[in-house]
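Protocol step 4 of 5: obtain the predicted structure for the target chain.
Materials: sequence only (see below). No template structures provided, no constraints applied. The aim of this step is simply to have a reference model before the mutagenesis design in step 5. Sequence pasted as it appears in the construct record:
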Amino acid sequence: MYERHMVDVLLENQTLERLQGYRNRDRPLSATSLEVLNARWIHLMEAWAETANSRGRTDHREREDIEAELQLRKAQPPFHHVKEAFEQLQRASEQAYQEITGQSDRLAHADSEIEAAIEQK
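Step 4 output (C-alpha cells):
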C-alpha cells in the first residue's frame, strides 16, 4: 500500500511541475478553443498509441501542455474518445513489462550459472 501511495505522490508532483512549467511559459494555448484543444489531444493520444510498440521515444510536451491548459480551465481531456488508444497503450506497457521482467529472470539465471561455475573451479 505504501508503494502505491508513493507512486501516486510522484505522479501528482510531476503533474504539478508540468502545470507550473506551462504557466511559467505564459500559457501559450490560452487563446486556443476547447474544441481545437480536444481534437489535438485526441490526435496526439492516437498517434502515441500507434507507435507505442515501436521502441521510439514520443515527445509528450504538446499533449502535456494541452492537459495543463485544460486543467487550468477546469476541463477534462476527452478520455471517452480514446478508449482504444488507452487499450493499445496498456497492451504495449504490459508487453514491455514482460520483456523487462523476462530479461531480469534470464540475468538472474545467468548469475547463478556463473556463480556455480566459479565455485566448481
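Step 4 remarks: The longest helix spans residues 83-120. The chain has one domain: 2-120.
Proceed to step 5.
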